[in-house]
Amino acid sequence: MGDFGVEAEAGELGFDARRLERVDRRLRAYVDDGRLPGWLLSISRAGRVAHLSTYGSRDLESGAPVTDDTVWRWYSMSKPVTSVAAMMLYEEGALQLTDPVSDFIPPFADLRVYTGGSDLRPSTVPVAEPPTVWHLLTHTAGLTYGFMRAHPADAIHRARGFEWSRPAGFDLADCCEAWSGIPLLFQPGTGWNYSVATDVLGRVVEVASGVSLEEFFRTRIFEPLGMTEAAFHVPAERRDRLASLYLPGPDGTAVPGGELGKVGSRPPRTLSGGGGLLGTARDYHRFTQMLLGRGTYDGVRLMGSRTVDYMTRNHLPHGADLAAFGRPLFSETPFDGTGFGLGFFVVGDPVALRGIASVGEYGWGGAASTLFWVDPAEEITVSFFTQLLPSGTHPLRAQLRALVHQALVD
Question: Do the beta carbons of residue 304 and residue 320 sit within 8 Å?
Answer without folding.
Answer: no
